[in-house]
């Protein structure tokens, strides 16, 4: 036995490594499996069901590997340690997210899916030509296109050039009843303000308000000013968004989400006053925000209860209201539009918000059921160039 111990002493690193692996193995066996990771803002892989067929087809081993990776003991702590180590080595990006100045995180996009852009432009043009009323089309620039002074050194030109691509895209969208909403200069003029989140890919509520202001002015409508809205302004601190969830940057600084608790008379989501929850329950639709979501990691999902198919908002906020007349706007949007929609209640009696990814009917059915004074199609560039649901505009 003494001889064996002496031999082991010759290989101290091997002994430490084996002991470490045994401790980790035992701890992993005793650890409760988690359903969800708050740090990564996603559902974690659970143990797959075994079958001979899945084993032979190599499906079981791949799923089991995902399960082990997701459920590894102290996973969150290891992720943070990896981020610290990479930062110490001078790494300025991780998992498609670059670390910018003043704690800004930026998504990296090296190419445009031009074929999908062309298809989506075609769908928008067909919708405009087949619709009798006025249509406004706007493209929202993403943060890296506007906050160029915040980009990390060496990555200033890594992303696609939205400043030239967005005008080109908007020139392709045509129609006699078209109103083009130019948001690139709007966002550029406010680039020194907090118009994009530091840790998330969305614009902030302030950025959304500037877009709303530009839209209302383009339609000749009265609109609510920031000063008028101040009484309803609410703040929620400690927001870590999608860029943080992807990069796990240990040095990230949380954002504060601002929202406006405007009074409303009626809100429905897909025609209902309740929404199902992941655990089989239901939550009531009360107002324009799922306030309980502000206490969760994905705080942005509080706006309009997330990306639902058809949200209808009725209020008495409209500064353009005429007795005996009900004005309506149809907002067709991606998730950026969720934080803009509440502002539209100051310019219309009813706001219909459509997300084509989940619309529970065809667009033609919706237009047959309801008449609109205005239609606003609003997408951020990254979303528009990839979204395969824009075709539902002409379904």
Please summarize what this structure is.
With about 400 residues, the chain is an alpha/beta fold.
Give your account of this protein's structure:
- The protein is of the alpha/beta class and 395 residues long.
- It folds into 2 domains: 30 residues; 290 residues, no CATH class.
- The strands form 5 sheets. It has a 7-stranded mixed β-sheet with strand order 7-6-16-14-15-13-10. It has a 3-stranded antiparallel β-sheet with strand order 3-4-5. A two-stranded antiparallel ribbon has the order 1-2.
- The longest helix has 19 residues.
- The N and C termini lie far apart (79 Å).
- The mean pLDDT is 87.
Defining traits:
395 residues, 17% strand, seven-stranded mixed sheet, 15 helices, alpha/beta
